[in-house]
Design a protein that fits this description.
nine-stranded mixed beta sheet, 23% strand, alpha/beta, 16 helices
């Protein structure tokens, strides 16, 4: 049966190449695709579900390019520590107690939060990823999933690579393409160059894309320079990692030469301003990256280091931080900031059919209720979204042409049961 949705009389922020905005317009969706965007249309088909857009603004679904969804279970568990202390003394020991079912419920909690906040596509890297995939199937979100692995050429590292390969092969293009997979070697400081070369040789035939943490902290870069006399970015270039499609998370401490390497190799970059600030890792050179036409998207990172998955907050931070650091209010305009979370994110993860409200694109979108004091008056819709809106203003979320969240109600997830299970498991993990 054909599914049809008509969103009428809304302000539409298309995020197309010209950042076109319709003050009042309609969006017509048929099955999983956008059929038309623009001036009001007439449709007499009684089978069409009509959504009133009066007083509301439609934006492309937000794309979270870096997350560890199940880490929602560690929200507010280990705050105010440096990155390596946070990881080695707090997070790694707690993660050793995780069970597959913990991952399922932690990921389910994250999916509630992301969908509630207008995120329609996200990228994940974590353990027991088949459990996260199961949660994604339940929710209806679009997901890019990678099983994380850490190691060298020892048996444990090799086995974890085989597990990651098996997951990637078995879940690729599941749920009608809603789930896609990549490989998740954790970082250059937890995966030696020799091991990463092994990863590349083991996946030479499939050419599976890669998701990796890169140049997140100053300590990481200093360690790489001391050990290899190269920055992490230059080291990855040397071993051939960038011959694959790569999504690099963070890229905070990078040189001009690093930027040239990332741009020339079309490496996707997941910029995580909130997490980078909270862990004291600094501020990425976002303006330089944008000026060089780097493929930059936005991510929240996991809720253990953020502590939320609010993409509106990341959009605002991405813009405001650059203005403050450079002491120039013209740096990173509102339109540029919003582009990072929409079409920029789509480019970073190499999915050219989302991120824009445009005929022929996937019907992934969020409707934001502007009938709020902090979103009045309607002087500039894009500026209001970037500088004033928050996740709780989202009214409706549609992914692949299906309504997942409708005026405060989740249609695919059991909110109360997820809260119960997540709290029960978090209590055990922190003891």
């Amino acid at each position: 049966m054909v599914s049809k949705i008509l969103i009428k009389d809304a302000t539409i922020i298309t995020m197309n190449e010209n950042n076109e905005v319709y003050d009042t317009g309609d969006i017509f969706i048929e099955n999983d695709l956008i059929k038309s965007v623009g001036p009001p249309i007439q449709d007499g088909d009684s089978n069409v579900k009509t959504i009133s857009g009066r007083g509301k603004v439609v934006i492309p679904g937000l794309i979270n390019t870096h997350n560890h969804a199940a880490m929602c279970l560690f929200r507010s568990y280990a705050d105010d520590y440096p990155l390596m202390v946070w990881l080695e003394d707090k997070i790694f020991p707690a993660e050793a107690r995780l069970t597959p079912e913990d991952i399922f419920w932690g990921a389910s909690l994250a999916l509630l939060e992301m969908i509630r906040g207008g995120t329609t596509t996200y990228v994940d890297m974590y353990f027991y990823m088949d459990q996260t995939a199961r949660a994604c199937l339940n929710s209806g979100i679009r997901a890019v999933l990678s099983q994380v692995f850490i190691g060298d050429n020892a048996v444990d590292g090799f086995n974890s690579l085989q597990d990651a390969k098996s997951f990637a092969a078995s879940w690729q293009n599941e749920a009608g393409g809603m789930i896609s997979t990549i490989l998740g070697p954790h970082a250059p400081y937890t995966c030696s160059p020799e091991f990463l070369k092994k990863v590349l040789s083991e996946t030479e035939e499939s050419k599976t894309p890669i998701h990796i943490h890169l140049s997140e902290s100053r300590q990481e870069v200093q360690q790489s320079l001391a050990t290899y006399n190269k920055t992490p970015v230059a080291l990855m270039q040397e071993i051939g990692l960038f011959e694959r499609d790569v999504l690099a998370a963070h890229c905070v401490h990078i040189t001009d030469e690093d930027i040239e390497i990332l741009v020339s190799n079309q490496v996707g970059i997941a910029h995580n301003p909130g997490s980078n600030l909270k862990l004291g890792n600094g501020i990425a050179p976002l303006k330089k990256l944008i000026d060089k036409n780097a493929l930059v998207g936005l991510g929240t990172d996991g809720a253990a280091s953020n502590n939320n998955l609010d993409m509106f907050e990341e959009i605002r931070l991405a813009g405001l931080l650059q203005k403050g650091v450079h002491e120039d209010p013209t740096f990173i305009t509102a339109a540029e900031a919003l582009a990072l979370a929409t079409r920029g994110g789509a480019q970073a993860i190499k999915k050219n059919y989302i991120g824009i409200l445009k005929e022929g694109f996937k019907a992934d979108l969020a409707i934001v209720d502007f009938n709020q004091p902090h979103l009045q008056p309607h002087n500039n819709a894009i500026a209001n979204i970037v500088y004033s809106a928050c996740a709780s203003d989202v009214d409706t979320v549609i992914v692949d042409g299906k309504v997942l969240y409708d005026q405060g109600m989740f249609l695919t997830l059991d909110e109360e049961n997820i809260y119960y299970e997540a709290n029960k498991r978090a209590k055990r993990l922190r003891q």
